[in-house]
UniProtKB/TrEMBL annotation:
The lineage of its organism: Bacteria, Bacillati, Bacillota, Bacilli, Bacillales. Keywords: DNA-binding, Membrane, Transcription, Transcription regulation, Transmembrane, Transmembrane helix. SMART domains: HTH_ARAC. It comes from the Bacteria. PANTHER family: ARAC-FAMILY TRANSCRIPTIONAL REGULATOR, HTH-TYPE TRANSCRIPTIONAL ACTIVATOR RHAS. PROSITE patterns: HTH_ARAC_FAMILY_1, HTH_ARAC_FAMILY_2. The chain crosses the membrane at residues 24-48, 305-324. Residues 673-770 form the HTH araC/xylS-type domain. The keyword Transport does not apply. GO terms for molecular function: DNA-binding transcription factor activity; sequence-specific DNA binding. This is Helix-turn-helix domain-containing protein.
């Protein structure tokens, strides 16, 4: 048999296979047709759409990046304005002896160095003070001897704007900033007669790197002009200087400073975009030119190459397809050879049919695996419910979820789903306060619930939460009319058994029912909310969520604010025993006025938040104090009154008191408490640090130091905050005039307006108007 005969027989054997023929034709189509179609599409539409898209991208990128640059300048302006209001830049600088008062001079120098490093665009910061002897701090001290230079710096104080980029020619010509971009701010912030100025010199190299981002392509450049169309900065290289001059002239002719167009220059196409930066005292214009010819020209060449390559592939596709089909058929052939006998291999039939027949022989093994799987059904059911409640099965359809439940042995057609929650209580009263017993007690409770449930219901799943609570997931027929009665009886039987065996009380919450699998997660959420409406007493309770009255959800919450204040005062003074007594009164008040767990838990959470606020106010980090524990989560898990009291005292308050006593002078804290009480009672009088010091029988220095250490703020700041808080209250809730309110909080009318606007941001009259409109 010659070579060609072998090849022909080999081809006949392959072509007789249905799988081989289908694979061959499919791969032939895939390898040839899409290539030709894509090549024609690229050649026809690619070039035009690419040019349009590049121009569009250029404009969009310019706008986005220009906004970023504008934000950088705005941040620089706002930062300088903030620094201009620094208390250190006060009128005392004009009469200050900078040589003898070297400590203050050093503080000024440090401030300027901090300002210089506060923004990446700042190259140099200089302070000019027009005092008896005009001086410059840059940041080192120098006296101005040259009259022209002195007049140049004094011109900064004559401008109508306190902060500006646009400097007088006298300043530019007679200072070192001839070719620099400078931002100046008069000091102090906003006054009619400034006595000095802060001069910020911009780092041109960094600014050039920043505006260079306006050019999306490496061969482009960007130019920055001032409002007189003079070039402030340009990133154009030598080969683009002529084009830069053309664009500069075009900008002088064009009234519209914000535009986008395409420019052909020396066999290149440039996408040109311009826009403006509205700066304080000036308007800057930027022009960005980016070449796009270098990007679009390869597209034509590439599309032609793809066209020729696709036609060539069409010729090679047949050989490649034959080879690929043979490779795809090889594993199928090997699988058939391994699964079938030699006699059956000679029969010309569909290979997959032979494989299908062989798989039927594996049914015994499958049954064996199913038997093993059935042993894991309880755990699989629990895992399914967990996944359902966590939202992991949200994308599954209702039918798919029901099919999956049926695979786990549940019968769900014409059935209803109900959930019961069992919560153990009375642990503290039963002297079972060992946390290690929680899992053991929960396990015992779950076993009791399972034994009783199986006597009344056929389909159920016990969910052990391992936190003194468990759930019972029930599937009952839709036509079971006595379901509420059966559920209540089940709850009573479980309660009786747990009381007898474990000697503990129990709260059982019964959810509503649903026929939708996807609504099962809502049953868990409903149980989580509804169980919190139990009465906060150590007694057996059965809660039917269907019978929960609407008034329970809208019941008014009573909160003992006065007891809260007493608790905080005791904590401040480190009196743990008194604090515990007030907490017990606090708890008794809550139980007497709204004994639902939801109300009690919310109030306890609020009390803990207030205690934590006091800890923060004293300068202590709760995260460090409590070693990074999640205190809110711990508190949310406690459902026993005595446990909550002990947790607040032992886990929250005592560590704080110990920390304060070990790290802070308790007498100093008592001193501050005494003075703050005096301030609260006499803030409307003429109060000073010295008066309060005499009242507390101490020195003004000691009292000032104590305020700073204990409260973290100065005495005058604390007094101002108390007075302004009272003023806000009177503005919102009284009809008193502004001058009457000023006098009632200890201020003169004119000074009250200034200090109120300084701290609040708006005048008192406007504050009253805003609050009246919002209410």
């Amino acid at each position: 048999m010659n070579f060609w005969t072998k090849i022909r027989n080999w081809i006949d054997n392959r072509w007789s296979s249905k799988y081989f023929r289908k694979s061959f034709l499919m791969i032939l189509f895939i390898t040839s047709i899409p290539g030709i179609v894509s090549a024609i599409g690229i050649y026809t539409f690619g070039l035009y759409s690419t040019e349009e898209e590049l121009r569009k991208i250029h404009v969009e990128e310019i706008n986005d990046r220009a906004q970023n640059i504008d934000d950088q300048f705005t941040y620089l302006e706002e930062s300088l304005s903030y620094w201009a209001f620094e208390p250190i830049f006060n009128s005392q600088l004009t009469n200050m002896d900078y040589v003898s008062e070297f400590q203050k001079t050093r503080d000024l120098k440090q401030k300027l160095l901090i300002l210089q490093g506060s923004h990446p665009l700042i190259d140099e910061v200089e302070l000019f003070v027009n005092g008896r002897d005009p001086i410059l701090l840059s940041p080192y001290l120098s006296f101005i001897k040259d009259h022209n230079m002195e007049d140049a710096y004094q011109s900064l104080l004559l401008g109508s704007q306190n902060v500006t980029w646009d400097q007088e020619e006298q300043f530019i010509e007679n200072t070192k900033y001839t070719n620099d971009i400078v931002l100046t701010h008069q000091i102090p912030g906003v006054v009619n007669h400034p006595f000095g100025a802060i001069i910020v010199k911009i780092d041109k190299q960094k600014l050039a790197s920043l505006i260079e981002t306006l050019t999306p392509y490496s061969d482009g450049f960007t130019m920055l002009f001032n409002q007189d169309n003079e070039v402030l900065l340009s990133t154009a290289e030598s080969n683009h200087e002529d084009l830069a001059n053309v664009l500069s002239n075009e900008l002088n002719k064009n009234q519209n400073k914000s535009s986008s167009f395409q420019l052909d220059w020396e066999n290149e196409t440039f996408s040109v975009s311009s826009g403006q930066f509205d700066r304080i005292g000036s308007t800057w214009t930027y022009v960005s030119a980016a070449p796009i010819t270098a990007i679009t020209s390869p597209i034509v060449t590439i599309s032609k190459v793809i066209m020729v390559a696709s036609l060539s592939i069409l010729i090679l596709a047949f050989l490649m397809t034959w080879f690929a089909s043979n490779r795809l058929y090889k594993p199928v052939r090997n699988l058939v050879n391994s699964l079938t006998t030699p006699d059956k291999q000679k029969v010309k039939t569909d290979e997959f049919k032979q494989i299908h027949e062989q798989f039927h022989a594996l049914t015994d093994e499958r049954r064996h695996l199913e038997e093993r799987l059935s042993e894991q059904i309880p755990q699989l059911r629990q895992n399914f419910l967990v996944q359902l409640t966590k939202g992991y099965l949200y994308d599954y359809s209702e039918n798919a979820l029901k099919q999956r439940m049926e695979k786990y042995g549940w019968s769900v057609k014409d059935h209803t789903f109900v959930l019961l929650d069992i919560q153990l209580t009375g642990m503290y009263d039963a002297d079972k306060v060992n946390e290690e017993d929680d899992s053991l007690l929960t396990f015992a409770m779950a076993n009791i619930a399972e034994d009783i449930t199986k006597e009344q219901f056929q389909q159920y799943t016990i969910l052990n939460n391992y936190d003194l609570s468990a759930g019972i997931f029930l599937i009952v027929p839709n036509n079971k009319e006595s379901l509420p009665t059966s559920l209540h009886k089940l709850a009573e039987n479980i309660t009786e058994a747990i009381n007898k065996v474990l000697a503990l009380k129990v709260t059982i919450t019964i959810s509503s029912k649903t026929e939708q699998v996807k609504q099962i997660s809502h049953l868990f959420e409903e149980i989580g909310r509804g169980k919190r409406y139990r009465e906060f007493e150590n007694q057996n309770q059965i809660i039917h969520l269907n019978e929960l009255q609407e008034r329970e959800y809208k019941k008014k919450l009573y909160y003992p604010f006065e007891l809260e204040k007493e608790i905080i005062q005791c904590i401040r003074r480190g009196r743990t025993n008194e604090t515990e007594a007030f907490i017990r009164q606090f708890f008794n008040y809550l139980v007497e006025n709204g004994n639902k767990e939801l109300n009690v838990q919310a109030s306890i959470m609020q009390l803990y938040s207030t205690i934590q606020h006091e800890i923060l106010h004293s300068g202590i980090d709760p995260t460090v104090l409590y070693n990074g524990r999640n205190m809110y989560e711990e508190l949310a898990q406690i459902r026993e009154r005595e446990w909550i009291v002990r947790w607040l005292v032992d886990k929250v308050i005592q560590p704080y008191v110990d920390f304060v006593e070990n790290n802070m002078n308790i007498e100093m804290k008592h001193l501050v408490d005494e003075v703050t009480l005096y301030i609260h009672e006499n803030y409307m009088e003429d109060i000073s640090l010295e008066i309060c010091a005499d009242q507390a029988d101490t020195t003004a220095y000691t009292l000032s130091k104590a305020f700073k250490k204990v409260l973290g703020i100065n005495f005058i700041d604390y007094l101002t905050r108390i007075r302004l808080d009272q003023a806000k209250e009177l503005l919102m809730n009284s009809n008193l005039k502004i001058n009457e309110i000023a006098e009632s909080v200890g201020y003169r009318h004119s000074y009250f307006n200034r200090i109120f606007k300084k701290h609040v941001g708006v005048p008192p009259s406007q504050y009253r108007k805003i609050k009246s409109n919002s209410s």
